[in-house]
From TrEMBL:
<comment type="similarity">
    <text>Belongs to the DDI1 family.</text>
</comment>
<dbReference type="InterPro" id="IPR000626">
    <property type="entry name" value="Ubiquitin-like_dom"/>
</dbReference>
<dbReference type="InterPro" id="IPR019103">
    <property type="entry name" value="Peptidase_aspartic_DDI1-type"/>
</dbReference>
<dbReference type="Pfam" id="PF00627">
    <property type="entry name" value="UBA"/>
</dbReference>
<dbReference type="InterPro" id="IPR009060">
    <property type="entry name" value="UBA-like_sf"/>
</dbReference>
<dbReference type="GO" id="GO:0004190">
    <property type="term" value="F:aspartic-type endopeptidase activity"/>
</dbReference>
<feature type="region of interest" description="Disordered">
    <location>
        <begin position="390"/>
        <end position="409"/>
    </location>
</feature>
<dbReference type="InterPro" id="IPR021109">
    <property type="entry name" value="Peptidase_aspartic_dom_sf"/>
</dbReference>
<keyword id="KW-0378">Hydrolase</keyword>
<protein>
    <recommendedName>
        <fullName>DNA damage-inducible protein 1</fullName>
    </recommendedName>
</protein>
<feature type="domain" description="UBA">
    <location>
        <begin position="397"/>
        <end position="437"/>
    </location>
</feature>
<dbReference type="InterPro" id="IPR015940">
    <property type="entry name" value="UBA"/>
</dbReference>
<dbReference type="Pfam" id="PF09668">
    <property type="entry name" value="Asp_protease"/>
</dbReference>
<feature type="domain" description="Ubiquitin-like">
    <location>
        <begin position="1"/>
        <end position="75"/>
    </location>
</feature>
<keyword id="KW-0645">Protease</keyword>
<dbReference type="GO" id="GO:0006508">
    <property type="term" value="P:proteolysis"/>
</dbReference>
<feature type="region of interest" description="Disordered">
    <location>
        <begin position="321"/>
        <end position="385"/>
    </location>
</feature>
Amino acid sequence: MKVTVATEEGKSSQIEVSGDTAVSTIKSLVSTELSVGPGAQVTFNGRPLADTTTLAGAGVSEQDLLLVTMGGGGAFGGVAAAAPKGPTLADVGSEPGEMLEFFKKNPQLLRQLHHVNAELAEAVETGDVGKVRTCLMMQQMNSHKAKWTRETERAALFANPDSEENQAKIQKMIDQEAIDQNYHMAMEEAPEVFARVSMLYIDTEINGVRVKAFVDSGAQSTIMSAACAEKCGLMRLVDTRFHGEARGVGTGKILGRIHMAQIKIGDHHFPCSFTILQTSDVDFLFGLDMLKRHLCVIDLKSSMLGLGSAGASVPFLSEKDLPSSARETQAEDLENKKPAAAESSGSSSSVETAPTGAGAGSAAPASSAMDTETPATASPASASATPAAATASAAGGAEEAKVTQLTAMGFSREQAEGALSSTGGDAEQAAGLLLAQMDL
């Protein structure tokens, strides 16, 4: 099989190896081309691999990516050094039991897992080893199905590479592989780029009313919503001659302008002018015009807003103190950071890989539906059946549920029944057998 070995500096090499190849051999094969020393660490989907581990034992398959880290000397060394020490998602074991124990000891990482792989996080929260195992299996199955589909499409494209249409598709495929590789490297080396970033808010007081102001140096003007102006008793000061339309990411109706009002920040009062919008997601936006007027400095290191005109500073609000609208917006932005399942190349890892296939979510409901429908559709005659017949009927329903679960994973009914027969009716072993056959 072919695997790609990449370094933190962006160098990569594709090599042909077998499943029983040890990690130490991999390092030897790429030592010259990638300048890899014997002390380098090889990781697969965020999990460090011992030198004696074989590729098959680590779950590495065709076209997978191995990352080689050089002991802190890579491109992301500065980021890693600055990050606080402690367990990360890369330390999660691949076994369901180990995974549950890990998150039990490190509950703070479960929230991060929700951002990366919400489906797996929900399974972990149940504390049910079986549900976690099923989730991992389904995600691995979807990953292999996606990989098989890509390989089939690749073979069809390279069968006629001179076609103009195929050349365009091949280029798109190469670009997508580069994007996926870049994504996985970012997940492993700089996972903080996928984390939620809190917006900058400060406490202010206008006409005795406390208002949380959104500090935005990217906004040309200081803006207040009509509702906030009404609450602060300022609507009577709106000069409607300055009405119009605000244009940015979207548009909004400008009702007018308040030319001067006092705003209290910390212990100091400042004159401030506002553009009043009819509707706004933010009550009060402290824009660049007032930031420049009062010589403000956004100090991210100290998390303070310096007020140069007053020689003072005030702290930015912590995430828990932000307005509810800001937290909801951040949650939506975070959701948008997740790649769509169809765009992902997939991975055999189920912790570090955010994308999951559609089948992972549909298998459990299919099985549940079968379990609930079986008693409901039983005929009246079955109520008087002998205990032996009732047992046989229940067993048949259970077997049908297992077949349904496997077919929901993408296999034919014949394949599902054959695998169940070979494994004595064990659905998990049957799925593993079908998965192994798919790799051959």
